Target: DUF2017 domain-containing protein
Amino acid sequence: MAGFVRHRRSKRIIATLSGFEADLLRSLAAQLVELLRNEAAVPSESADPLEAMFSGGEFSGPTTEPDDPVLARLFPNAYREDGEAAAEFRRYTEGSLRDGKARAAGTIIDTLEEAGLPAEPGADELTIDVDLDPATAEVWMRALTDLRLALGTRLEVEEGDEEYWYSLPDDDPRGQAHHIYEWLGYLQETLVHAVAG
Model:
């Protein structure tokens, strides 16, 4: 795969993915959406939207850091030295941040399916032409960052640990997952350059 490039005339951002790559990307995005949605706070059932907003609805999110390490990495404490301020900030912001991240990952899924990826996996022999306008490219950049953070957290990737990953045998699932992590980084890097170009 050649990564993302900017079309000279139209200024659109384009890439060609194999069916396998597109399927993999869609699967990763769907897993992230599921994680974000399943761990989200239950919304208030008040019939009055104004009452819900101020009595525990829209602005009543979680106040503690998530137990899941991926979610803790995606939603770190805003105030490390002040637990009360961190809890209050989280209560007012985490719900909308989760929604935004889930929508961004959903945009990847929608874009791939609009580009011709079948809804069911198994389209390995296809190639998918991804064509992004600048606004959608920005959403993809945010979603790729979240996907990479999520996978890196699950793998416990650390700075300077490349030698460990390259020493793993080819059939080690951790090494294979790390290759996906690096591939996401490559996609992200080429997309950033294409947007900036």
Summary: The first helix runs from residue 19 to 38. Strands lie at 5-6, 13-18, 127-132. Helices lie at 19-38, 49-54, 69-74, 83-114, 134-155, 162-167, 173-196. The two ends are 19 Å apart (CA to CA).
